[in-house]
Request: fold
Amino acid sequence: MRFGRANFLDSKVKCLNRPNTLQKDRLTMARKEPFRRRLKSLEPRIIFGFERKDKTLFVKLAGEADMLGSSKLRSVLVRKLNGITKVIFDISDLEFADSYFLRLLLKLRKRLGGVSSVKVKNPRPNVKKLFEITGLDKLFL
Reply:
């Protein structure tokens, strides 16, 4: 077999022309695109404000206290606890809460070391039901 210039160019064109591989790459990218959009929506959807009076910290929550929101709240709350003996949460504008939020409350109660050191006020019916199902309404409400 003789390798001339014409044969070399023909073989190169054939290597670059891979319709099956290109279609597969397009399908892969199309599948990844919705996932990328979902990642952008995975930001904490919680809003909180703090007010300190003597040794009591009042925390106002709005939005969703899910895994991401609770971890964001925890990181900010830890910095505010110097000299605090009691924390009162107003969750009247909290639309959703899950076990991560309950865990945050339990750990905070343990850290402050008192029976009535953490209280929750004005829960919506769906959030109140979460406290009742888990039996934590006796501790926090």
Notes: Confidence is low (pLDDT under 50) at residues 7-18. Residues 46-140 form a domain with the Transcription Regulator spoIIAA fold (CATH 3.30.750.24). The beta strands are 46-53, 56-65, 86-97, 118-121.
